What we know:
Structural class: mainly alpha
Shape: elongated
Number of strands: 0
Radius of gyration: 29 Å
Number of domains: 2
Amino acid sequence: MGNKVKKVKGTEKLDELKKKQAVLKARIEQMEAKAKTQERKQDVRRKILLGAFILEEAKKEGKVDELYQKMDGFLVRNSDRVLFNLPPTEKAEEEAKGENSKKTKQQ
């Protein structure tokens, strides 16, 4: 009978340790997610500041239009291209036509 008591206590201890492990794992995952979120925010902030600097320099040098034209080869999405007064890409136009025809067929 004493042997059964030891097994029960051992099982309880194991269960307790597994619960602690689950809690620690959740905390680790939460902290990792927070760190990733912070890094993404910092990356976005760096990009905003760099873009602001480049745009300011282009304004000083009177080369804003030239800068926007350089963006022509870089920007793919039409929603981005509109911000720089660039025409839509052929690929994006084809995709838009495809989406419009899908919508028409669905109606």
